[in-house]
Amino acid sequence: MPEFRNIFSGNPLDREAARRRDESWVTERLDDPDALFLPLRDLTFPMHQEGEGMRLAWSPLPSDADVERHPPLLLGTSDGTARFAIDAAAAPDRFALPEDATFMDLRAAAPVLDADDAGIAAQARSFLDWHQRHGFCAVCGEPTRHVQGGIYRTCTVCPAEHFPRTDPVVITVVIDTERERCLLGRQASWPPGMFSALAGFIDHGESIEDAVRREVAEESGIEAVNVRYHSSQPWPFPSSLMIGCLADAGSSEINYDEWEMDDVQWFTRDEIDHSLGQPAAQLGEPGLPEGALSLPGPMAIAHTLITAWARGDV
Amino acid sequence: MPEFRNIFSGNPLDREAARRRDESWVTERLDDPDALFLPLRDLTFPMHQEGEGMRLAWSPLPSDADVERHPPLLLGTSDGTARFAIDAAAAPDRFALPEDATFMDLRAAAPVLDADDAGIAAQARSFLDWHQRHGFCAVCGEPTRHVQGGIYRTCTVCPAEHFPRTDPVVITVVIDTERERCLLGRQASWPPGMFSALAGFIDHGESIEDAVRREVAEESGIEAVNVRYHSSQPWPFPSSLMIGCLADAGSSEINYDEWEMDDVQWFTRDEIDHSLGQPAAQLGEPGLPEGALSLPGPMAIAHTLITAWARGDV
Questions:
Q1: Contacts for A297-300: CB closer than 8 Å, 24+ residues apart
Q2: A142 contacts in B (CB within 8 Å)?
């Protein structure tokens, strides 16, 4: 099966794993007048219109930026030019952005953002958020500091090193091939009528397939068999790796955990096809007509998995 | 392709995600005289001979165990009986283990340990190690405490919750189909002659396939194309999820990073077949005859991937 590229994947930057080991090389990049900085404001991104779509808006580093308190994070290089993410609070109102630039939440912006830029923004969002929440050492409680442009943090007192975390999540569409239907669930906080694939974090001591079987059983009471990987997606809210799978149903009677799920149902191919032809529901928007099924939009890997099954591509 | 079960996967315990949300249910399990405890000593495990192989050795909770200072971690239940991991320092020499029980490092023991028990030990090792290294809040530096039998920790001062981390790693065998050879590398710390698949942690904002292409390029200079997932494996040293892939070579000239790799080479199918017929090298053992290729043993997913290619199963 050819690789499917979900949104947020395919980041084109060279992360410079080798050269960034040299702290002085990183410092030289900071001082390079050609280096570009992406200033995030409460994890929202500056964007502006370019042609048909939206692009990220980059700035040189303001001369008075407080890089001690807000150290820039080296994302990588593009055509030899360094690209950093930085908290906009490092130099409020001093970043030189295009006049039409506006700050947007990545979840809202991703559908209209250039695909390469969406990948860069995903990296920047997870990276900055992690650094902002890891100022202290989990081993001893003392302050930490960032090194190598942010590839990891070291404790200022004990020998501990702390690397940014990426949390693997399994997300699965379970298929009942004989009856041409698939299993989807919904959480109580979602808009009425919205259903998606079943998902959960991978636990310690689990393979991907173990985690799929456990999560599907916990959330639906259905036995998942013949688990197969489909595609994956970085999901920067805050730092998940979505691992998309399909599985066959080894049982049919649904029995879900009401604490975790609001509803779990089987949906026929006709119901899915009909819903895929409608606009996707958005969180916070008014509900759909009573009884209408709404599926996640193309940004979500759940959409990829459901569509793959509905189109017979798997 | 049918699922391949690597060692450490297939843990048979029921993790009790729903019932453990009730702290009083967890406390009742602690007080249950039938509950069984696995006392770890510096992350080594008590084991004893049973039939042809080795099994984990469990004990009731000693009456004087200091569970405030060393809170037991609920692994799950087996036939309705709770199973906990606990630091043996909670009650030194008071755990009631079989007379022939010895403490073994999991890396050394895994090849002779019962497969289900290897899965339980993997969970226990990652879980206990994470708790021991997360006594403080990364957000504010204050002490944390464990809840729900250890499913997560909360800060005692700020609102932060901290979940155990699982670090996804890609590990890849790159294949040159036309010339019937595969790409393997070695690190300087390994025994002479030992080579394995190329591996590295998945970064923020990368899909599995993105990470494979970056790691293979960084470590070998080879372009990896047509990346496909093979199987996965929990790797509890300390808490990785190994994601095993195969890829085709889009180029042939090796150019490796000498800081990261000691050597990277193409190996023919004959060389691989010959080596797979020999005993695997162990870390710390005397080297092989000059020039002989040694591959990782069956415990490693690298062995699974190399063997799959050599046997023509992929």
A1: A297/A111, A298/A7, A298/A111, A299/A7, A299/A107, A299/A110, A299/A111, A300/A196
A2: 141
